[in-house]
């Protein structure tokens, strides 16, 4: 039998990002194997808390090549998202290319040179050679817990462990964190009849999901405005609809009301239940002893359950630390978050969360990936150098949508030019200025991601 001369590609993870990449590669006729450590596709959507709904609307939140069912509500539930993603993988025949219950334990460059490809070792004891590796293991699976959490002796659950109010012991529940997950969990506990407090460290702007009966992103007149003017108009509409955050009892005043400078917290029910006395706002947790929790204002209270909505850490346990350049453990990337610095034949899909719906991001990155793979087969240098290199790199996970979209558009145009006219050996595209500030958000709240 003649050995195939086609490059062999590997995808790590069969969640939404991995499925988007797999669909793109399979449709293009590539030889691709996807490794999934669990026995199913769909990632965290199988295990998210039951009260979770999208903060982005149905009609703009699906994969680029598959609309969500019109029978779904405006803001689909966790179960509906799970079913949609699973159906996407099954109906496209993607499971035929997935090795389930097979965890990637190590990824290392061949002979220490990534231009020769990568050796992928898996939990079944095998080591396989691939011409390129696409990392799509997600950034919402390794909980970020503060050190103080270990001191609590009651029920203590990270948001990723919480399913519903049956997990709680009562009656006193404390939720730590006021991102989208924290708001959801506090509302869930309050509506379940628990005496609920939420620990908030700093001021936030709390946005409603809808304005004038429409999802914010579907306000056509606003959507047509330039980004900065759009932000100003939305900021004022939010203020009219919700009021200033500090007008709701206990909520701290934000340092800025500029929506670009605030994490996108989209929840109307938190302020609703605060105003009804069902949720009480407390300050930052500074110490825990047993069930006694001490706060920054010097007060101490006892609680029976604590839910930690403290976000997630980026984790790439299978990748050698020297394989890519990182900042505080997060790979530095260019080209819309797809290309790492200093590594050839390595790509990321889903290691970024531009504000808004996320599945379209995975689809767009996967389409760019096809062009980048074509270019990579014609050059030996790390592709990141052609896309600005270190000067354009970012470690951000949370990004403003219009900034990411601009970067993706530039990367797509350049990738197609490079595919048509591969650069001569040793030639680099002129580095671009970084489109991103030095500061970044490295820990991401589950529901902040959009879908």
In whole angstroms, the N-to-C terminal distance is 45 Å
Please indicate the percent range of residues in DSSP E strands (runs of 2 or more): 15-25%
Category by helix and strand content: alpha/beta
- Please name the CATH architecture of the largest domain: 3-Layer(bba) Sandwich
Shape: globular
Count of discrete alpha- or pi-helical segments spanning 4 or more residues: 8
- CATH uppermost class of the largest domain: Alpha Beta
Instruction: Quickly count the domains.
Output: 2
Main sheet makeup: 5 strands, parallel
Structure description:
- This protein has 451 residues and is of the alpha/beta class.
- Helix content is 23%, strand content 20%.
- The chain has 2 domains: 8-141 and 313-449, FAD/NAD(P)-binding domain (3-Layer(bba) Sandwich), CATH 3.50.50.60; 146-310, FAD/NAD(P)-binding domain, CATH 3.50.50.
- Strands 3-2-1-7-26 form a 5-stranded parallel β-sheet, covered by helices on one side.
- α1 crosses α7 (359-376) and α7 (359-376) runs parallel beside α8 (401-420).
- The protein is globular.
- The model is unreliable at 431-442 and 447-451 (pLDDT under 50).
Short description:
With 451 residues, the chain is an alpha/beta fold. The chain has helices at 16-27, 78-91, 180-191, 220-223, 227-242, 269-275, 359-376, 401-420; strands at residues 8-12, 31-35, 98-99, 104-109, 118-122, 127-130, 132-135, 142-143, 155-158, 172-176, 195-199, 206-207, 210-211, 214-215, 265-266, 279-282, 285-289, 292-295, 300-302, 305-308, 312-313, 326-327, 330-331, 333-334, 339-340, 346-348, 353-354, 398-399.
């Amino acid at each position: 039998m003649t050995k195939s001369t086609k490059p062999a590609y590997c995808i790590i993870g069969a969640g939404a990002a991995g499925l988007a990449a797999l669909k793109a590669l399979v449709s293009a006729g590539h030889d691709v194997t996807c490794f999934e450590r669990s026995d199913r596709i769909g990632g965290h959507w199988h295990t998210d808390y039951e009260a979770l709904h999208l903060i982005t609307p149905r009609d703009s939140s699906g994969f680029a090549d598959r609309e969500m069912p019109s029978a779904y509500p405006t803001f689909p539930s966790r179960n509906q998202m799970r079913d949609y993603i699973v159906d996407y993988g099954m109906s496209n025949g993607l499971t035929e290319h997935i090795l389930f219950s097979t965890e990637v334990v190590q990824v290392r460059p061949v002979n220490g040179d990534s231009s020769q490809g990568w050796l992928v070792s898996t939990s079944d004891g095998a080591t396989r050679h691939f011409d390129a590796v696409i990392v799509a293991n997600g950034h919402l699976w390794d909980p970020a817990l503060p050190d103080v959490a270990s001191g609590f002796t009651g029920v203590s659950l990270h948001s990723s462990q919480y399913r519903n109010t049956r997990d709680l012991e009562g009656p006193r529940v404390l939720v730590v964190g006021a991102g989208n997950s924290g708001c959801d969990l506090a509302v869930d506990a309050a509506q379940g009849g628990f005496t609920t407090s939420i620990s908030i460290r700093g001021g936030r702007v709390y946005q409603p999901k809808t304005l004038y009966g429409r999802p914010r992103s579907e306000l056509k007149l606003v959507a047509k405005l330039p980004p900065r003017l759009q932000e100003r108009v939305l900021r004022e509409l939010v203020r009219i609809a919700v009021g200033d955050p500090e007008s709701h009892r206990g909520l701290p005043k934000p340092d800025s009301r500029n929506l670009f400078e605030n994490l996108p917290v989209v929840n109307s029910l938190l302020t609703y239940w605060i105003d009804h006395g069902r949720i009480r706002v407390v300050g930052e947790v500074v110490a825990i002893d047993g069930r006694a929790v001490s706060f920054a204002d010097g007060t101490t209270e006892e609680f029976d359950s604590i839910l930690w909505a403290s976000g997630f850490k980026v984790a790439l346990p299978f990748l050698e630390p020297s394989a890519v350049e990182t900042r505080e453990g997060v790979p530095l990337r260019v080209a819309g978050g797809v290309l790492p610095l200093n590594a050839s034949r390595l790509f990321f899909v889903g290691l970024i969360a531009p504000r808004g719906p996320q599945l379209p991001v995975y689809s767009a990155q996967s389409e760019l990936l096809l062009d980048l793979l074509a270019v990579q087969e014609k050059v030996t240098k790390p592709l990141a150098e052609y896309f600005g290199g270190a000067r354009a790199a970012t470690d951000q996970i949370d990004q403003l949508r219009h900034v990411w979209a601009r970067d993706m558009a530039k990367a797509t145009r350049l990738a197609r030019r490079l595919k048509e006219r591969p650069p001569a050996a040793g030639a680099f595209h002129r580095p671009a200025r970084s489109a991103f500030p030095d500061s970044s958000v490295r820990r991401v709240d589950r529901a902040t991601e959009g879908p």
